[in-house]
Every structure is written in structure tokens, then in C-alpha cells.
């Protein structure tokens, strides 16, 4: 196999670019924007309709000015062709914004360039103006050309470009470059030149297709009749360009500049110009003028022209830096340094999260999620491994759950909870901030899903436990002590569960729901949902799905049969009065908009105005701002939130007790002032930003940037860890000041095994920016083995843990035990022995730098 | 010297206070009325000695002075090179109250309240901590008089301001100091501050000596420790996050108008239109040259785009997008005088924000010693300080009157400009670059 010859390929591209008219960006082209993204990879083909609800629930991350989908691993029947053609031919999909140009495009760039194996016109919705109310611009007509290069065309390329077959590793690589160049020419002539925007290539690859419109992504599915069209890998993308007058979808995502690749992106680069220059030096010119286009070009350059392995490609996009770089093995450091020095100008700087779909080879479909080094955009990864494996990456958890909900409603092989949800650590030595989801065809014709991180290490996506449901048994045999208190019933249920099969387990859940009072049933099921305990032979995620479903059913039953403890809201805006203190109202979130004046959050404010003080919010689908707007002095209010709450939960809390029964999203507890907020799971980015007080508890991990700019006296326990930038610019007083106590964060650095046992994380905090620029408060970290080093602090220093400190920590850990069942004694147990608190927990305080010392001394003298 | 107890300050005594303030006020007036020659070190090319003395004169008398140039500075650029193309004198309108200087702040037609200050001016954010409570109270009271608004800046919402809450804008900025549901609920306008023209890309830094006592208490920090506002919102790295921000405050206060304060980078037009689509009623562009002496000089003069360039750029872009009539465009950053106000409106803004001008009216000498030298106690005139002693030099009764007089003079001059251009409503001036001319060389 001849080696790659990137130089020859890029020289040829330079010549090509020079031979074409120069495309200048004009004002009309520019548009910045944010986005909402979801990607999935599945062992069985997934129909487009399953993305519909998910995308509809994420509309608020776009503005209807750009939506698109990408599909990899198609079904030939949906394109009226054969498997052979689908696998072997390039699928060149052309969008005709103006259909009048089709003949001209075909003559010049299809029939004269390619042998055409098949042509498929993507069907469209005729009455879209009535059906799709958000759609303002008619989407383009799309024609799929299944082609392969003409021999004469390849010869012509050799003749005109100076390239020879020896410059490519094989014929296919040469054909790919041929397709790339032909597409570029087409896009220059029919799209970019004079800003004409009549036609452009959506995607060019094998077994993959991109479709995009000026509109929302779910309207792509409707408009192009994708409800029943299947693919193994899907990406959906809402764009939020800042401009309003957008008339053609050229700037929408996904971008298909790379051969066999579709790339979407949430965020903005601050170095678009630099990346453009970097590409120009390599003979490439952007035609669509968005940062995503240049990212797609850079990806293709590194992958196809330079032939980098995926690890290096990811490193060039999201460089490893600071402590994470130091933590890499030396040989990696050497290579990474070379990559960074060579390609830093092509490395997108700023907030971004990429999802990339890639047709790797015949029957090998791939999805990649990569976050930027600082993790500035929201991102969640997850998988579910039943009879069928499926994995996701997305902007938020709720959109993943929406796909699962849709799948589970049709196909009993799926259920509504992933086995695991997590956030990637951008540019890190731990996972590299990127995961590859591969679906590969097996010898028997089925597909197998596997997952690996940036470094190629396989992620174990096969948790233990039986996931095959059977019908419920008539009797669980658990003999639950229904007359006992809920705590005891819970304990008994957990013990009984250890030896149960699905039949008995389902029966036990029914018994709890049916035999206990509603109040007790809610308590027991809440605890079964929240706590970490062994689930015997059963798959934990499926068990949680069952428990959660039962809990929601019990709460919902209060709509038709209200009782003294619970009243269900009957319809949108139904606002009864509480009949007795302590009575709770159950609100089904589904009918309410996620934000705005008619939103769920505003409805809760209205119900609060009617006298309600206790709320159970069920069926959340990304609903934002729950608990916001309640105002001051809300110490008598409690809110229990189930399923997928949206951003800003418990922000501004001024006294409420809020429980999130499951994972939370981003910006929870912003400017939290008083009260208690408990998340029985992980939390997303920017937790507790500007928090001023209150008691905060997180069972699992916090993603990037928690507790930034906190002042006053907030107290937080994180039982897992935080990804990075914990408590930057923390200013929260002095915790030991009796008259005006400041705030602090406790990190326990633990996780739970599949059996529900507490284990220690490798390090309680993996990042290099702990307590940076802090001027007040303290961090208490459970670190008996001194795994943290002062090199991770940037403005803080370790100091001894005193008795007064322990009194503060203990107080929080006692409550932590009540919320999560994490015994204080277990936290003090190290290697099987009970240690003194001061040996287990370390204290970090703000470093008294010289300037501050002078100030403090001065202030002290004047006190 | 520093007083931490709740005891009455023993110092300054009433007698000393009266004597000192009397002398200070006399000094301002003596210079403003030309009793002494112009101090040699007063002012700079942008805020000339004439402009400062003229502002003091207007603040004392409510009239424009005859002996000082109260219209332009000597910066050699921007506003100072622009003049009006006045009509021939016989076409001038009568001066009087029929010349309407009011400004509509809500143009979205979204059922929320309409706010219409008497002047196309409201007060920019100067935080409690960066200025004294007395300064805030003086500005708040003047805002009530002129039916206009004053932003809290990013230092919290002092209890004493709640009595004027109808005229107070709560600023939500990157540090979230003092932002809570109570203050958001109380405000007719919520202002998101993404950046300041005086120091774009930089955060706030309240020096340790200015963040003691009540300031630290209001911000919930350790007394006498430097306080930083980060340069970005750590929760907002995208326009979609910005929309979420706006949705968030609207959940708390659905009636409030939303103002978005941004600096003026190269792509300020994109930022502006993005803010509009995200739900902003007011887009506030803060250009370079604003800021007190506490903002780094190198940042003030070198980073942001001057407002004279940014306003027409954004104005035209909003017209092109077809949304110009649905949003209020406010300019700040070096807008010093009534003439500047009229010029920036002619360039395409609807109105302006005053910051430094208010301070000058209250006696600021533009000495740039806002942080108060080595002691860090702050402004020797009692403006940009929270030192318990120094802040007493400025009392609201006096300062409020000064501001009122100054605004009377500003309104008079605005009407003077309008009548000489033949306009009866200030909004008719918007975008009328044809009424401006550029002067070069000596003429400036």
C-alpha cells in the first residue's frame, strides 16, 4: 500500500481553489448561533419518528431558522435501490433551493462526472404550509444520486491536478478525493458564486444522508416523510442563528463537507478566522461561512488527507492542557505536543460540542461526540444495553429519554431509562472528552454496538442484571409489613428484592402501590427510586423504570381520586384550593410549555398564590425554571420533581425544600439563597452559580463549573466529584466565623458499585482548577490517601482540618446520610478501618497572596 | 477611622461636615461661575475643562453657560467632529414644552407595560461599592423626578433603594452579586450586563478597601477582600443560553422589560440582533471611552469600538433585518452632553445612558483617582467611595438638586437642537445622519 501523500493532495486543492472564482464573505452570510443536538447509534435500524418528540422538546435550543438530520446505515428499500448500490456507490445528495437548476447541475456535475447507478427523489410533504406551522421557507427539493466516478473523470483529475494514483493508499481514496473536488466545484458554481444559493451538495458518502431546512429539525422528519425511514445512526440538530432573515438552508447543520461524514456543532468558535486561514494554507476555502463548515473541513483534512487515527484527530480539535497534559504518559505527551504545535491554528477555540456521524466502511457506522477542552456547552452521554444496544450523546438528558420513551412505546426491547448517563471531561487525560459509538455488522448479519473513549479504551456497556421482563407474579412472596413505617417497608423490600425474579419484583411494586396508603407508597417508591442498593439479579435501570412508573401512577391517581394528602391537577390551569395544611398538589408537566409566561414554572407560582405549599411535579420533559418566581421567604414550600427536569431548577431558592428524584440538568441552584436542594443523581453544568446560601446535596457528580462566584454562606455536599473548575472565584466568607458564617463545598469522591456498595473514585477531583481565584470559603475533600496535590489548586492551599471544621462538615454529612443513605461512619472508614476525621478530610482555603495579605493586615488594623 | 460598629460615626462632626461641604460647594461654584481662572490640570481632551465647568454650571443653575463650551470636547474625533446642519434661523421653531423629548422603551407590542421617561436618558449601572449609597440615592431620586430609571450596577440592591423601586433597574451581571428574586420582582426593567465598553473582556474588580462593611454584607463576601466579577457569564456561552437567561428572569417577573447591555465588538450587529430575537426590549450598546477612573486606561481606549461607529452599524443592521421598529437602541460610553445625546440619536440610537455625566454634575473633577490612591479609600469628593467618612461629603439633598438642574439644562439644549432642526419629537431625529456634518481641522 503506497503511503499517503497529503502534500500532493493539498497542492492539487490549492490549484483547484485558484482556478475557481474567489468567494468573498458578505454580510448576508454571517450568522452566529447556539444549538440543540442529539445523536444516537443503535444495533437495529431506528425510524425517524422516534426522534420527533425529542427534537420537539428541544425547540428552545433553536429558533426555527435551521434544522437538520443525518442518517447513517440506511435501508435500501427506502431509496428504492439495492443493498449493493447503497453500500458501494457514493450517495451524493443535492439540495435544489431552486428546482429550475436541476438540469444544469445534473449535466455538468452528475452525468459528466459519474456513472449513475440510481437516482432517488426524496418525497416531500405537499401541504406543508398547513401542516407545519413553524415552517416559513419552503425546504429544498432533494435528489439522491447513487454514483461512482467515471474512469474518464479520474483520468481528467490526474491530468489537471498533478495527482497520481500513487498519491493515494487505494483506488477508493482516490475516488473520495474526486468526489470531494467535484462537490466543491458544484458548490462554488451553484451556491457560493455571487451568493446565488440555487443548489448545493448536502452530503456525499456511502450509506449516509443529510437533510436540512430553514425550520426546526422535527419538521425535516415530517417534510421529507422520514417517519418510517430507518438508520442505525441518527443526528438531529436545531440551529439558533442570531439573524432572523434566513432564506436558504446552506448554513443549517449537519455539514457534510467531509466524505462519509456529517458533523453538527453547538457553540461558536472565537477563532473562525484563524481556522479559515489554516485551511486556506492547505488549499481549502469555505463557501458557507459558518464555523461548523470549517470544522467539517478540518475533520475531513485530518481524517482523510493526513490519515490521523481518531485519537490524534480529537487531540487536534480539543487539545489536552494543564494538569491533564502532565498526567499523560510521556510518549503521548510527545505526540500530542507535536499535534498541538502543528495544528493549533486549525483547532476550534471557544465553546463547542461536536456530534459526528461517520460511515466508516461497509456495515460499520459510527457516532462521535466530542466536547471542547473547557466543556463550555452542555453534553450528556448514555447507553442502554438490553437485547438491543443503543447509545446516545445529546445536549440534555431529557431528549435522550424522549427517544427511549418513543422506542419503548413500540418495542418492548427498550425501556425508558438508560443504564448510565454521564458527562465527558473535555481535553482530559481521563476520557479525552470524547466517545466513539460504533455499530458494526457481524457475520450473522446482525449489528453489534461498542463504545470507546478518545484513547481507544472500550467502555463497558454491558452492565449486569436480567433485563427481560416477564409478567408479574400473582404474589411477590415478600410479605411486606404493611403496618410498619415506610422506612421499614423499604428495607424489607430491598432485602426481598435480592432473590427475586422479574415476576415477583413486579408483583412487589404493585403491592406497594396497591396496599400502602398513597402517602406511604409515595415515600417507599421515592426511596426505591432514589437510593443506591443492590437489585439482586435484576438490571438496575429497568428496575428503576418500573419503580418510577409505579410512583408516577400512584401520584397521578390523585387526579381522579384526590385524598387528604394529594390532589391532582385535573386540567391545564386547574387551580383548586388546598383543603388542609400539608396537602400536596400533583402537577403533570406535559401540557405546559417548557418556558415562557404559560410555562410550568409560572403555573407553580400561580398555584402557590392559591395557597399550595407542597408540589409533586411529574412527567417533566425538560421543563425549566421549576421553583423559580416563588419569591421570598418560602420556607414552608416543598417541591418534588420527577423524570427530566430542565435547566435552572431551584434557582433563587429562598427557603424551599426541593428534591430532584433523578439526575438534574444545567444551572441548578443559581443564586440559591436559602432552603435545601437535594438532587438524587448527577447535576449538569454551572451548578450553584452565584449561590448565596442554603444547604445543597448532590448524590452523584457535578459537571463543569459548579459553585462559581458563590458568596454568602452556601453549603454543598458532592458525593461524587466535579469535572473541573469547582468553586472558581469562590468568595463565600469564612465558614468558621461564628457571627457571619461563610460557605463551603464538601467533596466525598465516592461512587456506587452495581451492588450499591460505596467505593472510592480513583481521585476525588480529577481537574486542574480547584478553587481557582477564590477569596473566601473552603473546600473539604475526602482524600485519606492524599491523591490531590497542590498543583491542582490555583489560588488555594491545603491546611489542617480543625474540630470546628469537622463540626461543620459533620452537620452536613449527617443530613447527607438522611437524604441518600450514605452512612457518615462509612465515609470515615478507610481500608476497612475507622479513621479520625482530620485524617480523612482535607481542608482547602484561599491562598493568602501578598496583595491580599497587605489588604487584610490593613483592614485588621482598622477593625 | 474605619467604623464597623453600628454606633454613630463620631467623625465627621456636624460642624466639620457643614464647613467642609460648604467649602467644597463654594469651590465648585466659584470655578463654574468663572471667579477663578480655569484650573490648569482640570480635564482632558475628551472631558475638557470647559465641559466640566459647564456641567457644574448647569448643575448649579439649570441653565447652559455662556462662557464655556458645553457642547463639544477636543478629542479630535467622534462626537467632537460632528456638527448639526441647523436650519436657517427664520425656520427655527419656538422653544418650549411642545418639543417632545420622551422615549418609549417598549416597542415589542407584547402586552407588557410601556415605560416612557421624560428624556431619552436613563442612569447607567454604577454599583454599590464602586459608588456610595448617597450617590445611588441621589440618582434614584432624580430618576423619580424625570420619570426615568437608574441601574443598580452589579453590587446588589441596597434596602434604601426599595422606596424608589419603580425607577430602579436591577442589573444581572456575571458575578450575580446581590441578585435575588426579590430584586428581580421589584424592577420594571431587568438589565443583563454582558460586557462594559470601558473594559470588554475584563471582569469587575472591586478593591479590597472598597468592599468592607456594608458592601461586603450586601454582597455576602468576606469584608475587605477583593471582589471579582468574572468576564463572562459562566452559564452563557451561546445565544441559546442568553435566551434561557431572559426566560429565567421572565419567569420571576413576567412584566419587566428586558435590557441587554453589551459592549461593541466587531460583530456587535450580530449580538444586537441576537439579543432582540432572544426577547430583549432594549439593546444597550456600551462603547469605549466610558467608565470611571477605576477602569483600566488601556482597556477604555483600545478595546471596544467607539459608540459613534457602533450605533450606525447596529441601526442599519436592525433596519435590514426588519426589526428596527420593535426594539429600543440605547447608546453609552462617552456620551457627555446634550449635544452628544442628539448626535448619537441622529446616528441611529433611540436614547442614551448617562454615567460619568451624572458624576460630574455631582462634583466629579475627572481626576481619575476613583480608587483613592494607596489608602484605597476611594474618591476624595465622596463619589466613588464607601468610606464612611468620605461618603459623607456628598449628601443626597444637594446632589439630587444638582442632577435635576443638570437634566433641566440638558433638556433645554436638546429642545434647542430640535427646534433648530425643525423637529418636534426627539424620535424624529433617529437615524438622521443627513442632519449631521463632519468637521475637520481647526473647525473642530
Write up this protein.
The complex is a heterodimer of chains A (863) and B (444). By secondary structure, chain A is an alpha/beta fold. Chain A is 29% helix and 24% strand. In chain A, strand 18, helix 19 and strand 19 form a beta-alpha-beta unit. In chain A, helix 9 runs parallel beside helix 10 (291-305), helix 15 (486-497) packs across helix 17 (518-530) and helix 16 packs antiparallel against helix 17. Chain B is α/β, with parallel strands linked by helices and 444 residues long. In chain B, 33% of the residues lie in helices and 10% in strands. Chain B has 12 helices and 12 strands. In chain B, helix 2 (49-61) packs across helix 12. The interface between A and B is large, with 78 and 58 residues.
> Biggest interface in this structure?
A-B, 78 and 58 residues
Unreliable stretches of chain B: 1-6
Count every beta strand of chain A, where a strand is a DSSP E run of 2 or more residues: 32
Shape of chain B: globular
Q: What fraction of the residues of chain B are assigned to beta strands by DSSP? A: 5-15%
Low-confidence stretches of chain A: none
Cα(first) to Cα(last) distance of chain B is: 48 Å
Distance between the termini of chain A: 79 Å
Mean pLDDT value of chain A: 93
Broad structural category of chain A: alpha/beta
How many helices of chain A? The count is 23
Features:
A: alpha/beta, 12-stranded mixed beta sheet, globular, B: 444 residues, alpha/beta, 12 helices, disordered N terminus
TL;DR?
The complex is a heterodimer of chains A (863) and B (444). With 863 residues, chain A is an alpha/beta fold. Helix content of chain A is 29%, strand content 24%.
Topology:
The complex is a heterodimer of chains A (863) and B (444).
Chain A: H1 6-19, E1 33-47, H2 52-56, E2 67-74, H3 83-88, E3 90-96, H4 102-111, E4 114-121, H5 128-131, E5 141-149, H6 151-161, H7 171-192, E6 199-205, E7 208-213, H8 217-223, E8 230-241, E9 261-267, H9 272-281, H10 291-305, H11 310-317, H12 322-326, H13 330-343, E10 352-361, E11 364-371, E12 380-385, E13 389-394, H14 397-410, E14 420-422, E15 434-441, E16 447-453, H15 486-497, H16 502-515, H17 518-530, H18 540-560, E17 566-568, E18 584-588, H19 600-609, E19 614-623, E20 638-645, E21 654-661, E22 674-679, E23 695-698, E24 715-718, E25 744-747, E26 750-752, E27 758-760, E28 778-782, E29 796-799, H20 803-820, H21 824-827, E30 829-830, E31 833-834, H22 837-840, E32 841-846, H23 850-861
Parallel strand pairs in A: 17-18, 18-19, 19-20, 20-21, 21-22, 22-23, 23-24, 24-25, 25-28
Antiparallel strand pairs in A: 1-8, 1-13, 2-7, 2-8, 3-5, 3-6, 4-5, 9-10, 10-11, 11-15, 12-13, 12-14, 15-16, 26-27, 28-32, 29-32, 30-31
Chain B: H1 14-32, H2 49-61, E1 82-84, E2 121-123, H3 133-145, E3 150-151, E4 168-172, H4 181-186, E5 189-193, E6 205-206, H5 213-219, E7 227-228, H6 239-252, E8 257-263, H7 268-278, E9 282-286, H8 297-302, H9 307-321, E10 328-332, H10 338-347, E11 351-354, H11 356-361, H12 396-421, E12 436-438
Parallel strand pairs in B: 2-11, 3-4, 4-5, 5-8, 8-9, 9-10, 10-11
Antiparallel strand pairs in B: 1-12, 6-7
Helix pairs in contact in B: 1-2, 2-12, 3-12, 6-7, 7-9, 10-12
Amino acid at each position: 500500500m503506497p503511503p499517503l501523500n497529503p502534500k500532493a493532495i493539498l497542492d492539487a486543492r490549492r490549484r483547484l481553489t485558484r482556478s475557481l472564482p474567489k468567494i468573498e464573505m458578505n454580510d448576508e452570510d454571517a450568522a452566529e448561533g447556539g444549538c440543540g443536538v442529539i445523536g444516537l447509534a443503535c444495533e437495529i435500524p431506528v425510524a425517524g419518528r422516534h426522534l420527533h418528540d425529542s427534537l420537539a422538546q428541544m425547540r428552545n435550543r433553536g429558533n426555527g431558522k435551521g434544522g437538520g438530520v443525518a442518517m447513517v446505515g440506511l435501508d435500501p428499500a427506502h431509496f428504492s435501490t439495492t443493498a449493493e448500490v447503497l453500500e458501494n456507490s457514493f450517495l451524493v445528495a443535492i439540495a435544489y433551493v431552486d428546482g429550475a437548476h436541476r438540469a444544469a447541475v445534473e449535466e455538468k456535475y452528475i452525468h459528466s462526472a459519474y456513472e449513475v447507478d440510481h437516482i432517488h427523489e426524496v418525497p416531500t410533504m405537499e401541504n406543508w404550509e398547513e401542516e407545519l406551522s413553524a415552517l416559513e421557507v419552503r425546504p429544498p427539493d432533494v435528489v439522491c444520486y447513487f454514483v461512482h466516478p467515471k474512469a474518464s473523470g479520474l483520468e481528467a483529475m490526474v491530468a489537471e491536478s498533478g495527482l497520481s494514483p500513487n498519491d493515494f493508499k487505494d483506488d477508493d481514496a482516490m475516488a473520495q478525493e474526486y468526489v470531494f473536488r467535484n462537490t466543491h466545484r458544484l458548490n462554488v458554481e451553484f451556491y457560493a458564486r455571487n451568493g446565488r444559493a440555487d443548489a448545493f451538495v448536502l452530503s456525499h458518502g456511502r450509506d449516509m444522508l443529510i437533510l436540512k431546512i430553514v425550520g426546526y429539525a422535527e419538521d425535516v422528519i415530517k417534510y421529507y416523510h422520514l417517519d418510517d425511514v430507518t438508520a442505525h445512526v441518527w443526528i438531529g440538530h436545531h440551529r439558533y442563528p442570531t439573524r432572523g432573515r434566513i432564506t436558504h438552508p446552506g448554513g443549517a447543520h449537519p455539514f457534510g463537507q467531509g466524505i462519509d461524514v456529517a458533523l453538527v456543532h453547538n457553540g461558536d468558535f472565537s477563532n473562525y478566522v484563524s481556522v479559515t486561514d489554516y485551511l486556506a494554507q492547505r488549499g481549502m476555502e469555505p463557501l458557507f461561512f459558518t464555523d461548523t463548515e470549517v470544522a467539517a473541513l478540518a475533520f475531513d483534512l485530518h481524517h482523510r488527507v493526513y490519515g490521523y487515527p481518531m485519537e490524534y484527530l480529537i487531540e487536534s480539535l480539543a487539545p489536552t492542557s494543564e494538569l491533564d497534559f502532565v498526567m499523560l504518559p510521556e510518549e503521548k505527551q510527545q505526540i500530542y505536543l507535536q499535534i498541538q504545535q502543528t495544528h493549533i491554528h486549525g483547532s476550534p477555540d471557544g465553546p463547542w460540542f461536536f456530534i459526528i456521524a461517520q460511515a466508516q466502511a461497509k456495515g460499520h457506522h459510527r457516532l462521535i461526540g466530542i466536547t471542547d477542552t473547557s466543556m463550555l456547552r452542555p453534553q450528556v452521554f448514555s447507553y442502554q444495553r438490553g437485547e438491543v444496544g443503543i447509545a446516545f450523546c445529546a445536549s440534555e438528558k431529557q431528549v435522550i429519554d424522549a427517544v427511549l420513551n418513543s422506542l419503548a412505546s413500540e418495542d418492548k426491547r427498550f425501556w425508558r431509562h438508560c443504564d448510565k448517563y454521564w458527562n465527558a471531561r473535555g481535553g482530559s487525560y481521563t476520557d479525552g472528552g470524547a466517545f466513539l459509538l460504533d455499530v458494526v455488522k457481524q457475520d450473522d448479519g446482525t449489528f453489534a454496538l461498542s463504545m470507546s473513549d478518545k484513547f481507544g479504551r472500550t467502555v463497558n456497556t454491558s452492565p449486569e442484571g436480567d433485563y427481560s421482563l416477564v409478567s408479574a407474579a400473582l404474589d411477590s412472596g415478600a410479605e411486606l409489613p404493611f403496618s410498619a413505617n415506610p422506612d421499614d417497608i423499604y428495607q424489607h423490600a430491598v432485602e426481598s428484592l435480592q432473590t427475586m425474579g422479574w415476576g415477583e419484583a413486579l408483583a412487589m411494586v404493585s403491592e406497594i402501590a396497591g396496599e400502602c396508603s398513597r402517602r406511604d407508597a409515595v415515600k417507599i417508591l421515592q426511596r426505591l427510586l432514589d437510593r443506591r442498593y443492590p437489585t439482586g439479579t435484576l438490571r438496575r435501570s429497568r428496575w428503576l423504570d418500573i419503580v418510577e412508573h409505579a410512583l408516577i401512577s400512584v401520584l397521578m391517581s390523585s387526579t381522579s381520586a384526590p385524598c387528604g394528602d394529594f390532589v391532582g391537577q385535573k386540567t391545564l390551569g386547574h387551580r383548586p384550593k388546598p383543603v388542609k395544611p400539608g396537602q400536596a398538589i400533583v402537577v403533570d408537566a406535559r401540557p405546559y410549555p417548557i418556558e415562557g409566561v404559560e410555562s410550568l414554572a409560572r403555573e407553580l407560582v400561580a398555584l402557590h398564590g392559591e395557597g399550595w405549599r407542597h408540589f409533586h411535579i411529574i412527567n417533566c420533559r425538560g421543563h425549566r425554571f421549576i421553583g423559580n418566581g416563588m419569591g421570598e421567604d418560602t420556607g414552608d414550600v416543598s417541591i418534588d420533581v420527577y423524570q427530566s427536569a430542565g435547566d435552572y431548577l431551584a434557582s433563587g431558592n429562598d427557603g424551599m425544600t426541593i428534591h430532584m428524584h433523578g439526575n438534574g440538568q444545567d444551572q441548578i441552584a443559581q443564586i440559591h439563597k436559602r432552603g435545601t436542594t437535594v438532587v438524587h443523581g448527577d447535576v449538569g453544568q454551572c451548578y450553584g452559580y452565584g449561590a448565596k446560601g442554603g444547604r445543597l446535596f448532590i448524590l452523584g457528580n457535578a459537571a463543569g463549573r459548579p459553585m462559581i462566584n458563590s458568596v454568602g454562606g452556601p453549603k454543598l455536599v458532592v458525593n461524587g466529584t466535579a469535572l473541573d473548575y469547582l468553586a472558581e472565584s469562590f468568595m463565600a466568607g469564612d465558614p468558621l466565623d461564628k457571627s457571619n458564617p461563610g460557605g463551603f463545598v464538601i467533596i466525598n469522591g465516592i461512587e456506587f458499585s452495581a451492588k450499591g456498595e460505596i467505593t472510592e473514585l480513583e481521585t476525588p477531583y480529577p481537574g486542574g482548577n480547584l478553587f481557582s481565584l477564590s477569596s473566601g470559603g473552603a473546600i473539604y475533600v475526602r482524600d485519606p490517601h492524599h491523591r490531590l496535590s497542590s498543583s491542582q489548586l490555583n489560588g488555594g492551599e491545603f491546611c489542617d482540618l480543625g474540630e470546628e471544621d469537622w463540626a461543620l462538615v459533620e452537620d452536613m454529612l449527617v443530613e447527607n446520610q438522611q437524604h441518600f443513605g450514605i452512612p457518615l461512619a462509612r465515609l470515615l472508614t478507610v481500608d476497612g478501618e475507622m479513621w479520625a476525621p482530620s485524617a480523612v478530610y482535607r481542608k482547602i482555603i484561599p491562598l493568602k497572596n501578598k496583595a491580599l495579605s497587605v489588604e487584610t493586615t490593613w483592614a485588621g488594623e482598622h477593625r | 477611622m474605619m467604623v464597623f460598629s453600628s454606633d454613630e460615626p463620631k467623625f465627621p462632626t456636624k460642624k466639620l461636615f457643614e464647613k467642609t461641604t460648604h467649602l467644597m460647594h463654594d469651590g465648585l461654584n466659584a470655578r463654574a461661575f468663572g471667579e477663578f481662572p480655569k484650573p490648569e490640570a482640570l480635564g482632558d481632551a475628551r472631558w475638557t475643562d470647559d465641559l466640566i465647568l459647564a456641567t457644574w454650571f448647569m448643575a448649579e443653575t439649570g441653565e447652559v453657560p455662556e462662557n464655556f463650551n458645553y457642547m463639544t470636547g477636543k478629542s479630535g474625533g467622534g462626537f467632537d467632529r460632528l456638527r448639526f446642519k441647523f436650519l436657517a434661523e427664520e425656520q427655527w421653531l419656538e422653544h418650549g414644552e411642545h418639543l417632545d423629548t420622551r422615549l418609549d422603551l417598549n416597542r415589542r407590542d407584547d402586552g407588557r407595560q410601556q415605560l416612557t421617561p421624560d428624556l431619552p436618558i436613563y442612569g447607567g449601572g454604577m454599583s454599590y461599592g464602586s459608588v456610595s449609597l448617597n450617590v445611588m440615592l441621589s440618582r434614584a431620586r432624580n430618576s423619580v423626578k424625570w420619570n426615568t430609571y437608574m441601574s443598580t450596577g452589579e453590587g446588589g440592591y441596597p434596602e434604601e433603594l426599595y422606596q424608589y423601586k419603580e425607577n430602579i433597574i436591577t442589573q444581572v451581571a456575571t458575578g450575580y452579586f446581590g441578585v435575588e428574586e426579590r430584586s428581580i420582582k421589584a424592577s420594571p426593567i431587568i438589565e443583563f450586563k454582558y460586557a462594559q465598553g470601558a473594559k470588554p473582556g475584563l471582569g469587575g474588580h472591586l478593591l479590597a478597601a472598597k468592599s468592607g462593611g456594608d458592601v461586603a454584607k450586601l454582597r455576602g463576601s468576606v469584608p475587605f477582600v477583593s471582589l471579582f466579577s468574572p468576564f463572562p457569564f459562566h452559564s452563557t456561552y451561546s445565544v441559546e443560553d442568553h435566551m434561557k437567561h431572559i426566560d429565567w428572569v421572565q419567569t420571576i417577573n413576567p412584566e419587566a422589560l428586558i435590557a441587554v447591555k453589551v459592549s461593541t465588538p466587531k460583530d456587535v450587529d450580530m449580538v444586537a440582533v441576537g439579543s432582540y430575537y432572544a426577547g430583549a426590549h432594549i439593546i444597550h450598546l456600551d462603547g469605549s471611552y466610558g467608565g470611571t477612573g477605576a477602569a483600566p486606561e488601556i482597556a477604555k481606549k483600545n478595546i471596544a469600538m467607539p459608540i459613534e461607529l457602533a450605533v450606525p452599524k447596529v441601526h442599519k443592521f436592525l433596519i435590514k433585518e426588519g426589526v428596527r421598529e420593535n426594539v429600543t437602541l440605547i447608546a453609552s460610553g462617552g456620551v457627555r452632553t446634550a449635544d452628544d445625546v442628539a448626535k448619537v440619536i441622529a446616528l441611529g440610537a433611540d436614547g442614551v445612558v448617562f454615567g460619568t455625566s451624572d458624576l460630574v454634575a455631582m462634583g466629579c473633577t475627572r481626576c481619575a483617582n476613583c480608587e483613592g490612591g494607596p489608602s484605597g479609600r476611594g474618591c476624595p469628593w465622596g463619589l466613588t467611595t464607601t468610606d464612611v467618612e468620605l461618603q459623607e461629603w456628598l449628601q443626597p439633598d444637594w446632589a439630587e438638586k444638582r442632577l435635576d438642574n443638570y437634566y433641566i439644562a440638558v433638556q433645554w439644549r436638546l429642545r434647542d437642537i430640535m427646534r433648530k432642526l425643525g423637529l418636534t419629537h426627539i424620535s424624529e431625529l433617529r437615524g438622521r445622519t443627513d442632519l449631521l456634518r463632519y468637521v475637520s481641522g481647526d473647525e473642530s
